[in-house]
Amino acid sequence: MSKSLNLFVPAIGVTTLALGLAYGLSSRDYGAQTIETLETRVQQTEENVARAIAEAQAAAEEAARLQAERDQLEQLAAEAAMSGSDLTAPAPVIEGKYGLGRTALPEEIAAWDVDVLPDGRGLPVGQGDVFTGEEVFVDQCASCHGDFAEGVGNWPVLAGGFDTLANEDPVKTVGSYWPHLSTAWDYINRSMPFGAAGTLTPDETYAIVAYILYSNDLVDDDFVLSNENFTEVEMYNSDGFVVDDRPELEYAEWQAEPCMVNCKETVEITMRATFLDVTPEGGGDSVMNDATTSDSPVFSASASAEPTEESAAVEETGGVDPALVAAGESAFRQCKSCHQVGENASNRTGPALNGILGHTIGAVDGFRYSDVFQEANAAGEVWDAENLAAFLADPRGSMAGTKMSFRGVRDEADITALIAYLQSFEE
Known about the structure:
Blueprint: H1 2-83, H2 106-112, E1 127-129, H3 130-140, H4 142-145, H5 181-191, H6 202-215, E2 224-226, H7 246-249, H8 273-276, H9 309-316, H10 322-331, H11 371-378, H12 385-393, H13 395-398, H14 412-423
């Protein structure tokens, strides 16, 4: 038994030694891995810190650059204010870019560059005549602006007003006020018809503008407007505007302290916005021509219009029904752009109409009639109620070849009232 035990002792010692060596080796490998992992983490932390420091330094440099630019702009603004130089001049160009946006594509620029300038730049190729313009205007524009551009309700009047610009309440129309024809073309092309902007073709726009010019007696009825003769049209008020020189002459003075002495004790209201509304929601007779600062406009239907001085005079003489004359006066608004009646009436685009009923056709002195009127005059034809009514209803159908650019009065009641109104004016 003792020999057997002796044999096991060396074996146990060798096994223990082997186990000890294995444990030592594994512990050394684990320690090496741990150290390697810690070294990697330290290296990553150092890299992150270095990167954060670099980013912070870059941000500080950018902030310093922006602050320098701001200081430079403030200094330039202060110098401009002190010297009274042109405050409308473009901002100074600063070197460098912010890296925002991109260069616009040619087609993008072309899509935005649609304005028309007074010298004709931007006009598309096209043309339109007065007669075509009348048809398009009636279909697209007359519901707001009237058949003769005289305005409907509180919608703007586009014709007339030439003798009102010096008044306290001038009538500013395309004919009387606008200095450049390009303003009318560009606005109509891009903004009209109301509610359907941009639907007009270039030719339709040329035609509408030609008709508006004709309604203002600026062109003849055979006029054709095109991109080629556009700049040849001379507007009535082309010399009525001056160059704005306030930046050079006045802006510097405005930098002083404002005057706060000798102020007015009361404020006077001269007009209310409701009477200046050019795009009203409801209807009513136009106040564009006769609104005043002393009273409010009175809106009334034409059938119930108050009798005028002329109608009162007719009533006193036992003539035509004054209410019918008053209604005719309202209906005559669509004729005013071409015809005049009453005292000092003169020929315009159309002849004066005093004493027209019972008068020989085409016989008003000083007016140049078309061939069809000259033929009727030679035949001794006379304006009676019947043929005058037919002519008012359909001028071109009644007098084929007439130069009168008017499609006719639609309402028979208006025709009757118009004849009564004209009958109230003796020659």
